[in-house]
Design a protein that fits this description.
The chain is globular. The two termini are 27 Å apart. The chain has helices at 7-18, 33-44, 85-91, 119-126, 131-145, 153-161, 163-178, 216-223, 239-243, 255-258, 338-352, 371-386; strands spanning 2-4, 24-29, 49-53, 64-67, 70-73, 80-82, 105-108, 111-114, 208-210, 228-231, 246-251, 268-278, 288-291, 300-303, 315-324, 333-334, 357-359. With 387 residues, it is α/β, with parallel strands linked by helices. Strands 8-7-13-14-15-12-16 form a seven-stranded mixed beta sheet. Strand 13 and strand 14 form a beta hairpin.
């Protein structure tokens, strides 16, 4: 069940807990994927759970809702992919996945290129036909760059794929994503750039891939069946009262915020979305089109109906704009540079000493996780503490 937690409810529960150590075995902070998986496993093990969620919906950033008859990803595109059969079988208990294959394209100065970089991309760039021709062209451009010790992201990319691929498909997109010029970004951000010498436009190499036919929200709803969920409930605004309701708290929010930024703030990149209903059946012909020119302010346009092979007279698109993060914004991508990772380790040392609080998920662990990683981490924590 889902309902908002009022101040009166909290006060009543404070009184109740004076004579009772706790009402629940687990208080789970966050109704995103990590919290939902843990709550399902705990409930299945006979534990009583309360899930509290700051937003007015479940699902976290994988939240979907229907707009103009189209199931819409409200926080950016989410394609479930994994090679972990256990994780794949697990999520299929809660949703029927379609056969969607992620094959984005990039638009640069009026020309369309396939992503990731593959033989279709190289043919479009240079007119080459064979893998040997493509490899020779890339090696020639890497040699021409003459970079043995890259000092920044631009030099790193040039040393990996050469100038044509870098300037057409990497430079502008990356600079928009990070809000800084490539020459100002550290080289380690790009450790490798995937180059495929096959005519295969599938972005992922995983064994399993797809999107829930009814949307991610329905999947999370099924995970939370039988679990008490309270929406519009900010744990950090009334931490003492809410923590007193349970023996153990599972926290999936920002770890530095949990500790009131004791050592300083961890850094993130954020995103801004503009969603629009269009009176046309098909706007761009693909679910994801990346815009790699720096002068185009958004990084990509998502056309949601293509995720589920939809039809109908209207379509819904979302333009995605990278943004600098500030308190109050949604944090999306951790800036895992040396400085921030060292700061996170200080917070992790505090978390490791907690006796009645468990931390999990991308914000609590300050790590970029794909959805399959989140499911695996939640299952691992549940297996550890539930026995």
């Amino acid at each position: 069940m889902y309902f908002a937690l009022s101040r009166g409810t909290i006060e009543a529960q404070k009184i109740f807990t004076k004579g009772n150590r706790s009402m629940y075995d687990y208080l789970i902070v966050g109704a995103g994927l990590f919290g939902a998986v843990f709550a399902h496993e705990a409930a299945a093990a006979g534990k009583s759970c309360l899930v509290v969620e700051r937003r007015n919906h479940i699902g976290g950033n994988i939240y979907t809702k229907e707009i103009a008859g189209v199931e819409t990803h409200m926080y950016g595109a989410h394609i479930f992919h994994t090679s972990n059969q256990e994780v794949w079988e697990y999520v299929n208990r809660f949703a029927c996945f379609n056969r969607y294959t992620n094959s984005p394209v990039a638009l640069y100065r009026g020309k369309v290129y396939n992503m990731p970089f593959n033989m279709n991309t190289f043919n479009r760039l240079w007119g080459v036909v064979t893998p040997a021709e493509a490899k020779a062209k890339i090696e020639e451009q890497i040699a021409a760059a003459g970079i043995s010790q890259p000092k920044n992201l631009e030099e790193q990319a040039l040393s990996l794929v050469g100038r044509d691929i870098y300037e057409t498909l990497v430079k502008g997109y990356t600079e928009k994503q990070w809000g800084r010029r490539a020459t100002e970004l550290p080289a380690f951000i790009i450790r490798r750039l995937p180059v495929r010498f096959t005519y295969d436009n599938n972005y992922f190499n995983d064994r399993f891939q797809g999107i829930p036919e009814e949307g991610y929200t329905k999947m999370v709803e099924r995970m939370l069946e039988g679990v008490e969920v309270r929406l519009g409930c900010d744990y950090l605004a009334d931490r003492e009262a809410l923590s007193a309701l349970a023996k153990t708290t599972v926290f999936t929010g920002m770890i530095d915020q949990f500790y009131d930024y004791r050592y300083g703030m961890l850094e993130y990149r954020s995103l801004r979305f503009e969603t629009e209903v269009l009176e046309t059946e098909n706007y761009q012909g693909n679910a994801v089109v990346n815009y790699t020119e720096y002068e185009v302010p958004y990084t990509r346009i998502i056309e949601h109906k293509h995720f589920v092979f939809g039809s109908g007279p209207k379509t819904v698109i979302t333009r995605e704009y990278p943004a600098a993060w500030k308190p109050g914004d949604e944090p999306y991508y951790p800036l895992n540079d040396e400085k921030n990772n060292a700061l996170y380790e200080k917070y992790k040392a505090l978390a490791d000493r907690e006796e009645h609080v468990l931390f999990g998920g991308r914000l609590a662990q300050y790590k970029y996780y794909d959805m399959h990683h989140v499911v695996a981490e939640a299952l691992a924590l549940a297996g550890k503490v539930l026995g």
